[in-house]
Write a structure and sequence with these properties.
Elements: H1 13-19, E1 20-23, H2 27-31, E2 37-42, H3 48-59, E3 63-71, E4 75-78, E5 81-84, E6 88-95
Antiparallel strand pairs: 1-2, 2-6, 3-6, 4-5
Length: about 110
């Protein structure tokens, strides 16, 4: 695994708060907590090094790896009319050993 060059990432505090939209708490994402993983919804234009710096800055924990998933919105019907759900990006953040956070608690 190639480490990210986060020393060149310039990130303001406002951008760090904008990158992390919300934690995703589902049955599947909570299974990752056994391995020190937390899943966040992030902005579509966020990169892996930016996500790593933002999480380290906001939660004061050491990040080991960041995996991202771009989920395309589904086309759905509502009262006979076609609509489309929004696209969103998920980031699965793996923390170093002993650096886990609890997203069920308030920040």
């Amino acid at each position: 695994m190639r480490p990210y060059n986060t020393s060149q990432v310039r990130l303001s505090d406002e951008r760090a708060y904008d990158i992390i939209v919300r934690p995703i708490v589902t049955e599947k994402s909570s299974l990752g907590s056994q391995f020190g993983q937390v899943t966040f919804e992030v902005t579509l234009d966020a990169t892996k090094p930016e996500i790593k710096v933002a999480v380290e800055r906001l939660f004061d924990r050491k990040v080991k790896a960041v995996n991202t998933v771009l989920t395309k919105g589904k086309v759905k019907r509502f009262r006979g009319k076609l609509g489309k759900r929004s696209d969103y990006k998920k980031a699965i953040v793996t923390f170093e050993d002993g650096q886990d956070i609890d997203v069920t608690q308030g920040v």
